[in-house]
C-alpha cells in the first residue's frame, strides 16, 4: 500500500515496485497527485485502477481501515505538500490535514498488523534558528531538537515522525522513518499556486517570455536537492534495513543556492532569459544540507543522480507535460 501513490514520489515508487514484481495498491484523494502519473509510456495503467486504486481521503479513519486490508507493507507518503506561499497561507489546514492523515494511517496500519511501514519526514522541520545560521554545519539527525520548525507544515511532518516513532518503540509496528531534503523530478506540481521551487523555476523557463523569470528574494537561500529516483532507492532500502532505527536523513551534502539552480535551468532551456528578483516574496529558511552518514552506514545509501542530470530529465518531462495540457 502506497498512500499518496499518485503523487510525485509515490508514482515513482509505484513504478519501481511494479517493475520488481510487487502487488501494489495506491490510496490517494488526488489533491495534488494524478492518475496520469500511474500510466506507462503507452498510456496503460501500471496498476489495476478498478481493484488497486482507492480514491479516498485519509483524514477519514474508516477509509484508512479500508485500505489497510490484506496489506503487508505500507509506504506512507500521503500528506498535504505544496510550495511556500500555499503553506504559509493555509497553516491551520495543512497542520490539521497532516496530523489527521498521519495519525489515522499509523493506527489503522498497526491495527491491521501490517508487517512494516515507512514514514517520510521533512528536513524543513529542522529548527528555524539553525537553518538561518550561515555557519551551521551540515545537518545531522540530532539537530532536530530543541524543535522549532518555521512552518505548520514542518511541525506536522515532525509530529508525524514523533508519532511513528512511538509505534515503533512500543513494538506496535515495525517502522522506518526517512527524513527527506528537497525532492525533485517528474510528476511534480507545476502550477503557479502550489509548485515548489524546482518545478516553478522550470515552468518559468519553459514559458518564458510569456511568463517572467522571477526569483523569489535575492536567490542566495540554499537547499539540498535530491532526485526522486535516489529517494525511491532509499525507500526500498528502508524497508530492508531501516526498520526501528529512528529518523534517517536523505539528502545531499551540497548546498545549492536558488541563483545557482536558476543558472542551470536557464542553461538547459537554451534561451536568452533575463532574470528578475521579487524581494517581497517569502523565501523560507536561509539554508540547509545533509550529513547523510547515517543513511550510508545503516542503509548503504548514497545519492547517484547529479543535479544537472536530474534537472535535465525533469525539464524534458515538464515540457511534454505542459504541452499536453496546453500550458506552454
Ligand atoms: N517533495 C519534497 O521535497 C519532500 C520533502 C520532504 C518530505 N516530503 C514528503 O514526501 C511525501 C510525498 O511528497 P511528494 O513530493 O510526492 O508530494 P505530492 O503532493 O506529489 O504527494 C502527496 C500525495 O498525497 C495525496 N494526498 C494529500 N492529501 C491527501 C488526503 N487527505 N488523502 C489521501 N491522499 C492525500 C496527494 O494527492 C498527493 O498525491 C509527503 O509526505 C511529503 O511531506 C516531500
Question: Can you give a write-up of this model?
Answer:
With 328 residues, this protein is α/β, with parallel strands linked by helices. The protein has a domain at 2-184 and 225-252 and 288-305: Rossmann fold (3-Layer(aba) Sandwich), CATH 3.40.50. Helices cover 41% and strands 14% of the residues. It contains twelve helices and 13 strands. It has helices at residues 8-19, 49-52, 61-67, 84-89, 91-111, 128-131, 152-169, 197-207, 228-241, 258-269, 293-299, 307-324, and strands at residues 2-3, 26-27, 53-54, 73-76, 116-122, 175-180, 182-184, 213-216, 222-223, 225-227, 247-250, 256-257, 275-278. The strands form four sheets. Strands 3-2-1-4-5-6-11 form a seven-stranded parallel β-sheet, with helices on both faces. Helix 8 crosses helix 12 (307-324). The longest helix has 21 residues, at 91-111. Bound molecules: nicotinamide-adenine-dinucleotide. Nicotinamide-adenine-dinucleotide is lined by residues 4, 6-10, 28-33, 57-59, 77-81, 97, 101, 120, 122, 157, 180, 182-183.
Short account of what is shown:
The protein has 328 residues and is α/β, with parallel strands linked by helices.
Tell me the layout of helices and strands.
Layout: E1 2-3, H1 8-19, E2 26-27, H2 49-52, E3 53-54, H3 61-67, E4 73-76, H4 84-89, H5 91-111, E5 116-122, H6 128-131, H7 152-169, E6 175-180, E7 182-184, H8 197-207, E8 213-216, E9 222-223, E10 225-227, H9 228-241, E11 247-250, E12 256-257, H10 258-269, E13 275-278, H11 293-299, H12 307-324
Parallel strand pairs: 1-2, 1-4, 2-3, 4-5, 5-6, 6-11, 7-10, 8-13
Antiparallel strand pairs: 9-12
Helix pairs in contact: 1-9, 5-7, 8-10, 8-12, 10-12
The protein binds nicotinamide-adenine-dinucleotide.
Amino acid at each position: 500500500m502506497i498512500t499518496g501513490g499518485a503523487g510525485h514520489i509515490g508514482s515513482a515508487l509505484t513504478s519501481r515496485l511494479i517493475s520488481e514484481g510487487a502487488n501494489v495498491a495506491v490510496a490517494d484523494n488526488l489533491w495534488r497527485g494524478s492518475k496520469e502519473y500511474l500510466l506507462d509510456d503507452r498510456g496503460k495503467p501500471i496498476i489495476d485502477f478498478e481493484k488497486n486504486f482507492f480514491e479516498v481521503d485519509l483524514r477519514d479513519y474508516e477509509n484508512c481501515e479500508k485500505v489497510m486490508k490484506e496489506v503487508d507493507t505500507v509506504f506512507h507518503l500521503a500528506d498535504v505538500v505544496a510550495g511556500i506561499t500555499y503553506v504559509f497561507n493555509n497553516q491551520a489546514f495543512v497542520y490539521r490535514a497532516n496530523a489527521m492523515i498521519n495519525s489515522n494511517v499509523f493506527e489503522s496500519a498497526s491495527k491491521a498488523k501490517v508487517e512494516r511501514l515507512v514514514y517520510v519526514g521533512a528536513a524543513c522541520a529542522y529548527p528555524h534558528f539553525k537553518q538561518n545560521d550561515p555557519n551551521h554545519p551540515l545537518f545531522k539527525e540530532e539537530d532536530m531538537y530543541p524543535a522549532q520548525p518555521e512552518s505548520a507544515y514542518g511541525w506536522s511532518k515532525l509530529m508525524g515522525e514523533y508519532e511513528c516513532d512511538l509505534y515503533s518503540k512500543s513494538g506496535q509496528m515495525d517502522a522506518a522513518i526517512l527524513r527527506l531534503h528537497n525532492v525533485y523530478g517528474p510528476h511534480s506540481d507545476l502550477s503557479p499556486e502550489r509548485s515548489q521551487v524546482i518545478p516553478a523555476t522550470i515552468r518559468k523557463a519553459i514559458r518564458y517570455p510569456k511568463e517572467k523569470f522571477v526569483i523569489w528574494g535575492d536567490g542566495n537561500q540554499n537547499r539540498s536537492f535530491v532526485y526522486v529516483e535516489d529517494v525511491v532507492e532509499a525507500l526500498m532500502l528502508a524497508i530492508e534495513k531501516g526498520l526501528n532505527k529512528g529518523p534517517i536523513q536523505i539528502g545531499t551534502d551540497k548546498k545549492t543556492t536558488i541563483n545557482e539552480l536558476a543558472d542551470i535551468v536557464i542553461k538547459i532551456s537554451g534561451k536568452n532569459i533575463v532574470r528578475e528578483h521579487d524581494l517581497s516574496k517569502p523565501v523560507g529558511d536561509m539554508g540547509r544540507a545533509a550529513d547523510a552518514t547515517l543513511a550510508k552506514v545503516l542503509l548503504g545509501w548514497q545519492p547517484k543522480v547529479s543535479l544537472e542530470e536530474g534537472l535535465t530529465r525533469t525539464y524534458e518531462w515538464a515540457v511534454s507535460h505542459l504541452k499536453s495540457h496546453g500550458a506552454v
